[in-house]
Amino acid sequence: MEKIVILTGAGISAESGLGTFRDEGGLWTQYALEDVATPEGFARDPVLVHEFYNARRAHAAEAVPNPAHLALARLEEALGGEVLIVTQNVDGLHEKAGCRNVLHMHGQLDRALCAGCGHRWEAPLEMSVEDACPACGARAVRPDVVWFGEMPYHMDRIDRELAEADIFAAIGTSGQVYPAAAFGQMAGAYGARTVELNLERSAASEDFGEMRHGPASKVVPAWVEEVLGV
Ligand code: APR
């Protein structure tokens, strides 16, 4: 049975109404990432950062999976443990679609982290600087998401999975943020067949043996049907 590793980015959730980061009107055209997605920004203005993530958490809570998320759930259901999703997204839509084998390399909007003791728990919809850690009581509560300059989660496991993948697919990511932007090149170097499914060429396109251009809600279901041979 072939092992399939799938990297997803904001583009897979665009048709669920969640903004991407670098497209026209994207989040990084509305906010300075230095202010809301770095430890320094959080230290400088935690109120602004909580407001930013509270708004994204409320938006994600309302969002529903689109045909691309549902197609990946079908793929996981058909192939079981041979399918691993490594997502850069924090929106929880893969789980809402029914996927279970998901690594959140940038954390999750619905998780909170205590910057004091490292305790993690399910985040309330609204977080604020008044919140106290349920474990140590410190008022040092932050969203459990990975900010620029911080180490992504699960990297050892991801490196192992890329080395063993027969197929590596990247869906809806601009290929501008490392280490995820190098996964296609790494998987290909280990001998995996690589395919990029995206609205258009990305900064990492030349690392892929094959490209499928179009909206994820169209190209992902078609690709999954091909992989399943239906
Ligand atoms: N279908 C497929 N792809 C799409 C769609 C769509 N409907 N809409 C947009 N895209 C593509 C864009 O062409 C672009 O290549 O999705 C990609 C979105 O790129 P970014 O906005 O840069 O998002 P992403 O690659 O996930 O960003 C990576 O950067 O800011 C950090 O932590 C953040 O996880 C994020 C990381």
TrEMBL record:
Q: Which residues bind NAD(+)?
A: 9-28, 88-91, 172-174, 198-200, 216
InterPro entries with a match to the protein in the record: DHS-like_NAD/FAD-binding_dom, NAD-dep_sirtuin_deacylases, Sirtuin, Sirtuin_cat_small_dom_sf, Sirtuin_class_III, Ssirtuin_cat_dom
Among the entry's GO cellular component annotations, what is one?
cytoplasm
* Entry keyword set: Cytoplasm, Hydrolase, Metal-binding, NAD, Transferase, Zinc
**Start and end residues of each Deacetylase sirtuin-type domain:** 1-230
Enzyme Commission number, as recorded: 2.3.1.286
Q: Which residues bind substrate?
A: 53, 56
Its main subcellular localisation, reduced to a broad class, is: cytoplasm
| Chain sites annotated for binding Zn(2+) | 114, 117, 133, 136
Q: Which residues form the active site?
A: 106 (proton acceptor)
Q: Where in the cell is it found?
A: Cytoplasm
| Record text on cofactor binding | Binds 1 zinc ion per subunit.
- GO molecular function term, any single one: NAD+ binding
Which chemical reaction does it catalyze?
N(6)-succinyl-L-lysyl-[protein] + NAD(+) + H2O = 2''-O-succinyl-ADP-D-ribose + nicotinamide + L-lysyl-[protein]; N(6)-acetyl-L-lysyl-[protein] + NAD(+) + H2O = 2''-O-acetyl-ADP-D-ribose + nicotinamide + L-lysyl-[protein]
Q: Enumerate the cofactors the protein uses.
A: Zn(2+)
Source organism superkingdom? Bacteria
Coiled-coil ranges per UniProt: none
Instruction: Extract the PANTHER family matched here.
Output: NAD-DEPENDENT PROTEIN DEACYLASE, NAD-DEPENDENT PROTEIN DEACYLASE SIRTUIN-5, MITOCHONDRIAL-RELATED
Q: Give the protein family.
A: Belongs to the sirtuin family. Class III subfamily.
Task performed by this protein: NAD-dependent lysine deacetylase and desuccinylase that specifically removes acetyl and succinyl groups on target proteins. Modulates the activities of several proteins which are inactive in their acylated form.
The written remark on domains in the entry is: 2 residues (Tyr-53 and Arg-56) present in a large hydrophobic pocket are probably involved in substrate specificity. They are important for desuccinylation activity, but dispensable for deacetylation activity.
Q: What is this protein called?
A: NAD-dependent protein deacylase
